[in-house]
Amino acid sequence: MSSEEKITILKQELEQLKSKSDRLESENAWLKYKLEDLKRRIFGVKSERFVPQDPNQPTLFELPEEERNEKPAEFETVTRKKPEQKKKQPLRMEIPAHLPRRTEVIEPENLPEGAKKIGELITENLEYEEANIFVRQIIRPKYIIEQNDEETRIVVAELPSLPIPKGNAGASMLAHIIISKYVDHLPLYRQAQIFKRQQLQIAESTLGGWFKGTCTLIEPLYEALKNKIFSCDYLQADETPIPVLTNDKPGSTHKGYHWVYYDPLRKLVLFDYQKSRGREGPDELLKDFSGYLQTDGYNAYNNLKNQANITQLACMAHARRKFEHAKDNEPALVNEALKMFGELYDIEREARETSLSYDAIKELRQQKAKPVLEKIKAWLDEHLLTVLPKSALGNAIAYTLHLWSRLIRYIEDGRFQVDNNLIENSIRPVALGRKNYLFAGSHEAAQNAAMIYSLLATCKINNVEPHAWLKEILTILPDCPANMLHELLPVQN
Questions:
Q1: Would you say 433 and 244 are in contact if contact means Cβ atoms under 8 Å apart?
Q2: pTM higher than 0.90, yes or no?
């Protein structure tokens, strides 16, 4: 074998080794990203805030080996007595004026005759009483009317419509049970324990029956909400998992999903339960929808049957989050990207704080946000070919570029939101509920929960007190005509 042939073989082996090294480096970066992402999910604090890290300030893990292993220097200990400082007295909470007052007057003992009152000292303390459970006793007197010798008639007032026919739970009790479960996240068995302490024995099964009856009553109102929310031309959508007990194996759960739709303009929220995360759910609900749909990058939204009538927007917060997850791998480059995302959110903050009209918001975005978006696009194109595709940063860049046309669409209309954070706020009660009652008892129960979440989330976003509203509509619903149901929705007109 000639020397030239040996050199050729060695060059080929070198190229193979280089290719293998590049592949291993890429796989190593990907594994590091997944490890850091797992650490963040387990131990990290969920926050959208960004504080740039000083590149000249190394972390513990960036210190040279000799510095990490270096023994601490010995110093002479000097004890110095700190000067005594006066403790700051905590400010007393101001008692709200709207709370009812129960007055108690205490007169001095052995007050001599002729003493003149020159004023009074008033001391206020907060007190608490347990729930005031009472029985509403409806008495309907019976009367006999004798019309003639052969005919008599008995007259009695008609019984008012009850939330649950032949049930013995009134509207206020049913409202309390539902608010306790879905706002205060108290499972039914804990509520039964609380009632027991109040000398009221209510079986958990009875509470469950009352809840189911309430869901049957409010279902027409839920359908009215569904019809109203899909009549708009701008929606946000997201989904969240919910464990559901199945009959296949005792104790086993099925991973179902609550699909959530939000109308930002009229402040309406709708939860819809589906057994899977496939596109079947949004296909059905969005079949007649025409307008703008804002989502994350999940593929189920990309292949809707009604896609021709839907223009999609993407969520800027999801794109920003991808870069946040890459901070540990490429801190300098990630800080550059996050700083530019921060500029976009500063512009949105300016629009909110100045209470601009939709037209003014559009103009502001065209003037200030559009140049920032162009700067971000140039930065993404520049670094697309310089970072490892399988790295966390490479994944963030690819994700953002893939959705770019949808991400920048929000500047075309002042009505559009920059992200889906508002709908994510509506989903949070579901996550809290999972921690307390762990799962839904059946697919029917999961859909019942979706109805309750829809109405209560709409209450929250419209600043409507949920217990008072629910008590009122449970009183009205039994006699409410179908064409008047939309007037009962918890929205501010």
A1: no
A2: no
